[in-house]
Structures are given as C-alpha cells and as structure tokens.
Specification:
Number of domains: 1
Largest sheet: 3 strands, antiparallel
Distance between the termini: 23 Å
Helix content: 55-70%
Strand content: under 5%
Number of strands: 3
C-alpha cells in the first residue's frame, strides 16, 4: 500500500501492449511526416534519385523509430537512474573525439563507428539536460534558488562545452549551453543571475572576438554584411536568400527549384535544406513545416505541465527547448538573421547524429507522457 501511495496509481506495472495503446501516436505520426518531408527533399536534391541520400535517410529513420518506441516504453524512473551515467558516457565520447575522431568541414567532431559516423556533441545535448533534470529533481524550490546549488550545474555545463569548443564547434557548444541554462532557469534559479550573466556576456564581446578563429570572425562579418564578399564568404547566404525569395507564395514545384538544382546553393542536403523546400513549395510549404514543429513543441510543453514529478517536467521542457533551438537557428541562419553556424534542421537535414538526437529526445518525452502521473519522491541529487 505504501509503494502505491508513493508513486500514485500503479501505472508502472502496465504491460507493453497497454503502454503502446496509451502512446500518443499522433506525435509519432507528426515525427514521421516531418521525416517524410526530409526524405522527399533528399530525393529532390539528388535530382530524382533515392540513392544516395533519400534511401539512407529512410533506413535511418525506420531504425530510429523503433529505438524511439523502446525508449518511450521504459519507466521514467529508470531514465532518472541512468541520467548521470548517460552524461558521463557523453563525456567519454567527447574525449574519444580528441584522440580518435576524424576531421571534416573544418573540425574534428566525428567518430567512425563502422555502420555510421557519430557526432558525440549532438548526443551530449541530451546528456546535459538529463543530468541537470536529475540534479534539480533532488532539490527543494528553496535550494534551487541558492547560489551554492548552481556550482555543480555550472560544471556540468562547462566541461562538455569546453570539449566541444576545442573541436572546434562553436554553434553546437552554444546550443548545449543554452539548453542547459534553460533547464536551470526552469528549475527555479533566481532571474537576476541570468540578467547578470547576459550583461557580463555583452561586456565580454571584445574579449570573445579576439578568441575567435579567423573563419569564425569571417562568419560574423559576413552575417553583418554578406555583400562584402559576394563570391566568397557571403556566397552561401546570398544564394540562400535568392532561392528563398524566388519560391514566392506557393513555390516553383517539386524538383523544379532552379537555384538548388543548378547547384547555386551550397550544403543543400544538410544545413540549407530548408532553402530547397522553400524554393520548391514557397511560403506555404515553409510555414507548413514550421507548424508541424510547433505541434511537437506544444505537445512537449503540455506533457511537462501535466507531469507530477520534477524530473519528467524539466526533462520534457529542456528537450523541447533544444528542439526549438534547432529549428529557430537553422531557419534564421538560412534567412540571414543569424550567422551561419552549421545547425541541421531536425529530421529534414541529411545526417544520422542529429536524427538520432531528435528521436532519443522524443522517445524520452513520450516516456514522460506515459509516466506523467508518477509522483517520484525527492531524494538527494546523487541518491
């Protein structure tokens, strides 16, 4: 009787079939539709061929959809127990990149696993959010507001961020930090800390500028004035804007994009895939994709609000914010609203690491949904 009162109704004892019947299949369908759009865009980029991009993307999504379902069916208390080990595993992989990683696109960021290449910094975004959610689950609201309680979270954020910056991958490091800071804010840390941090960050801009590598400075200067080097550093963003504008309201039609199919737009299959979609399907297509992402974000927020345990609440909100960062930064990047930082569009850009991160994240959110009525008792952050 005591255990039932501690954890609420015995939802954890449901069978796999019961859990599957309670799963929000509308969200799974939304993920599948977004992935389907991505596969169609990869088909278009390859000039009407499934090989090599679309077919690989389809195989990856099918395998990772099964992984999502497995993750969703696992009791949320097990994920809470595995939060710190997942974080430590991510750190090990980041250190492995230092010694065994291979280089590409100006940085050493990937590990060759044989069947796929893995970018550990992508998975580290989930590890950081899980570890912070676990830590703050063990604190009272009063403790979470105390300055001394933020020392460990600061280290949890700083260590992987430093390793990612060394690769170098400033864009991913920034997303990792912002995702972690969001969890700390949602956990109840005092707002003045974030205001002070923002002011300190602005004051440190001259110092940060001197620490940037030459190509990173070039990206910022190009963002401020793309026309300063239209055939060099500014070429990417200028061609992206031309393609976006030429799509108009309804687009030129599937596989009819001239800027993309004449290879004017660089990195079409990855970072600038939204440019291809907007040119072929116009504003309507772009807004339609954005609405699908908003459905996923809204679902995660509703699940977080309905969760009776702090770990699930912070986990769902943190992962939702990470998805928001992916979508916002990628779309703003191709529109020239932020510097080009190499952030993929979830489930649409070609690549395995970002897709794996997205599917694990929504597997965890679905797990929070299935276990939202569990009242997990607060215990020591390392208990």
């Amino acid at each position: 009787m005591g255990s039932r009162l501690m954890f609420g109704p015995r939802k954890a004892d449901r069978s796999v079939l019961q859990k599957l019947s309670e799963l929000n299949w509308a969200m799974v369908l939304t993920l599948s539709v977004i992935a389907g759009i991505g596969i169609a865009m990869q088909y278009s980029v390859a000039f009407g061929s499934f090989d090599p991009f679309a077919l690989r993307q389809l195989i990856r999504f099918t395998a990772m959809l099964l992984l999502l379902l497995v993750i969703a069916l696992v009791d949320i208390r097990i994920w809470m127990t595995l939060a710190y080990p997942a974080y430590l595993a991510g750190l090990v992989l980041l250190v492995a990149v230092e010694f065994f990683g291979f280089s590409g696109k100006g940085g050493q960021r990937w590990l060759d696993l044989g069947v796929m290449t893995l970018q550990p910094s992508e998975l580290m975004k989930i590890g950081v959010i899980m570890a912070l959610a676990r830590y703050f689950h063990g604190l009272t609201a009063h403790q979470a507001r105390q300055l001394k309680s933020l020392v460990l979270p600061a280290l949890i954020l700083a260590i992987p961020a430093i390793l990612v910056i060394r690769q170098p991958d400033l864009g991913t490091a920034m997303m990792l930090l912002l995702g972690g800071i969001a969890v700390i804010f949602l956990a109840g840390a005092r707002p003045w800390l974030f205001v002070t941090g923002a002011i300190a960050g602005i004051a440190a801009i001259p110092v940060i500028w001197n620490l940037l590598r030459p190509y990173q400075k070039e990206r910022v200067l190009t963002f401020l004035n793309p026309e300063r080097d239209p055939l060099g550093a500014g070429y990417q963003i200028l061609q992206s804007k031309i393609a976006l504008g030429s799509g108009g309201l309804f687009g030129k039609g599937f596989m009819e994009g001239t800027q993309s199919h004449l290879n004017f737009v660089p990195e079409m299959k990855t970072d600038f895939i939204f440019t291809v979609l907007a040119e072929e399907f116009g504003v309507v297509g772009g807004v339609g994709l954005l609405c699908l992402y908003l459905v996923l974000l809204g679902y995660a927020a509703l699940i977080a609000v309905s969760s009776r345990n702090q770990f699930g609440r912070l986990l769902a909100l943190g992962l939702a914010f990470a998805l928001f960062l992916y979508v916002f930064i990628n779309m703003a990047m191709v529109m020239g609203l932020v510097p080009v930082v190499g952030v993929p569009l979830p489930l649409v850009s070609y690549g395995g690491s970002a897709m794996l991160t997205m599917m694990i994240a929504y597997g965890l959110i679905l797990s929070v949904a299935l276990n939202r009525r569990l009242s997990i008792p607060r215990k020591h952050p390392f208990g």
